[in-house]
Amino acid sequence: MNKRFQSPIVLLGARFLSPYIFMFGLYVIFHGHYSPGGGFQGGALLAAAILLVRVAGGEKIGQLQLIEKLTTPIGVIGVIIYFGTGLSAILAGGNFLDYGVLPFPGVVEPAWSRYIGLLIIEVGIGAAVMAILVMIYDNMIKGEDYD
Amino acid sequence: MFWELELVLFVFLALAAILAIEAKDLLVSVVLMTAFSFITALLYISMGAVDVGFTEAVVGAGVTGILFVLVLFKTSRETKD
Questions:
Q1: A54: nearest CA in chain B?
Q2: pLDDT at residue A2, as a whole number
Q3: In sequence order, what are the residues at sequence separation of 6 or more whose Cβ sits closer than 8 angstroms to the Cβ of residue B37?
Q4: By CA distance, what is A37's nearest residue in B?
Q5: In this structure, are residues A97 and A85 in contact, taking their beta carbons and an 8 Å threshold?
Q6: Domain limits of chain A?
Q7: Which chain B residues touch A43 with a CB distance below 8 Å?
Q8: Does residue A105 contact residue A114 with C-beta atoms inside 8 Å?
Q9: Position A5 confidence tier, pLDDT thresholds 50, 70, 90
Q10: Fewest CB atoms within 10 A around its CB: which of A96, A147, B54, B70?
């Protein structure tokens, strides 16, 4: 366990597999409102695709896909998307997260308004979950030198 | 769902759990716990809860396994002092 060495075959396999997992995560997020899946599952799949390369390649190669400083802003943006959609529903005259009253341009039916609102929510949740899971990994690998 | 298939899944579930506890190497334990999680996801799906099974497969078999492997790399079995 203490011997750590770089294996090019493991790294090649991880690099081969990672884009497909990422693509599947995007599929799960964008089809989450009418099929199984959704923001959390898709975000966890995106995080798994990034963590796979980070585990296989070590610290330097893992930073090429998503640098460590970017994780916290992406998480914050995801939460802002979520609460922004919910609060704009309040401003439009409905309840919190009531997508039916959201005034999207060119949309008159409440069903389509709910469709688009749910899609925006899923994207926000996916970004937040992905960033936070990667951030947990990065903070664990850095160790405890916060004091 | 066929009860024979669920019986096989439950047998493998118990087998994975017992082997994960009894294994001496901690990496083997982590891999067997991942297998446990995956069989649990299959059982959820066989019971009709596709969404729960999906979450279990992604989080239990993917992210948790990676985090446990990371903890194994960060720690050592013998004490240094």
A1: B66
A2: 44
A3: B56, B57, B60, B61, B64, B65
A4: B51
A5: yes
A6: 8-142
A7: none
A8: no
A9: low
A10: A147
